[in-house]
Amino acid sequence: MLWQTLTTARALGRLHDIASILIRYGFGDMVRRMGLANALERAGRALHWREAEELAHLEPPARVRRALEELGPTFVKLGQVLATRIDLFEPEWIIEFGKLQDSTPAAPWADIRQQLCEDLGAPPEEVFATFDPEPLAAASIAQVHRARLEDGSEVVVKVRRPGIRPIIEADLRWLARLAQLAEGESPELRAFRPQEVVRQFAQSLRRELDFAGECRNAEHIAENFAGYADPDSPGLPSSGEVVQTEAPEERPALIVIPRVYWQWTGERVCVQEFIAGISGRKLAAVNQAGLDRKVLARRGAHAVLKMIVEDGFFHADPHPGNVFYLPGNRIAFIDFGMVGRLTEVRRDQLTGLLLGLVKHEPRRVADVMLDWTGDGAMDEDGLLVEIQTFVQQYHGVALKQLRLGAMLSDLVAILRQHQLALPPDLSLLIKAFISLEGMGRELDPDFDMAGEAMPLLEQALRARYTPTAILQRGWRGVSEALSLVAGLPQDISRLLRAARRGRLEIHIDVTHLKRVGNQLDNAASRLTVGIVIVIAALIIGSSIVMTVPGGPTWLGLPFFGLLGFVGAVIGSIWLLLSIWRSGGEE
Predict the structure, then answer these.
(1) Catalytic residue among 87, 230, 317, 335
(2) For the whole model, what pTM was predicted?
(3) Which of 571, 567, 487 is nearest to 528 (CA)?
(4) CA 78 to CA 100: how far, in whole Å?
(5) What is the pLDDT of residues 159-191, one digit of tens each?
């Protein structure tokens, strides 16, 4: 089956690379079970099975991480996405996936310059006052160069690597195929939902390839922070514009989002304001600059909680490399290639969950978790008891001693034990929440995430039950009901018309039905082969009987030999008619 997907020599070469790396890191059995070995052996490609011995001492998480690093940029990105799926993997796996670093040698300047000329409409030396050909940073998908505009503004130019999209698309096709095979052939891998993970990853990676989409995300978040003021600093107003200070006398924005220069931004290149600040990784420099780490921790928490709880549109990867600290204890966020979106219903559920954890209300927590895991097969009573026991163990614990990130991780571990997975948007949210608390504690060891979140959560809960909000939800529900009733006659008419024409179809989706169908097809094929063998045996046996003298005859021919021929003819006709009828029914 897999052999049919090999359409080019390049695809075959990539398949050989994937299989060889998997074998080298001790996953030869997986290669055999997925049929990769058979495909390559048919192509005359040799796989070196003995090379895996040197890496056999590594633990499975480390072996997988090293294999992903060697498989290339697409698989490194996959590992980074897997690091967000704390509902599927144990902590030791998440730690290893978190070690994957997306850094590669810079692309040749000649290739970058040629692509920039195409995207900018002119050589970069003509578009910008200065342009540094040496990149500030280089990753698997893009690299970043520093430049200056004619008006003196400092900018960064993010350029997609030339020719990276076809490589990524080819790898995504292989990943989708491998995930399908893994889910169908390996029960132990099926629990990790490989097809769902690959679908989520493919969507995320394709969005990341579009730099214009990343810039739209940045502007969306900048609009949400327009006029934002720190709740703990009412005396320090912010400007009405987040992305750029318009006049020297205005106070700078507390939360800074880089300004986008759209005249030079597209799918393969984006130009954004240069942020001259202290990277979140350089905490020693924060002390040297005289910034208040407690204020930074609190202000960053408020900003991210606002994105999650109020806006429903948040930076999904707030790690220290994507955060900069600026004079005045201000904070800048960069790199909006990975964002999360939460519906109003999701935000309400999240508010209920966090309030339930902080206020020790196990029933509220259990209800939200059951809503999140869906209607799949589960031991609901057992899950409910475990969640209630977990929440009650924090009863009487002081608010500042609660570790919300750790509590969420433990809750997800309970779901993992019951083989339940969260929807991708929620796994991304929880990972971002855990990263946020970790950053806060790096800045301030006494950082109280629960205490910072409580006022915002209670405010969001109160806002849900204001008269205006209740009227809006009621009107929305009435509008949906009226729309449904208005369309009901047309739906019924269409249904009856289809029934009269005999074109009414009912589709039933049964899990693993395709696999059962394949097994039935194989059984039918074996039965057909058996019938053919029986018919052939009858013909050969009858021919032998015809040559033996003596015995009863009919019309001058040996009776048993003639009977065998007649049986063979009848069996052949029956088999041909069955094949013809089955073809007609399809």
Answers:
(1) 317
(2) 0.70
(3) 571
(4) 10
(5) 999 988 888 888 888 888 778 877 776 666 676
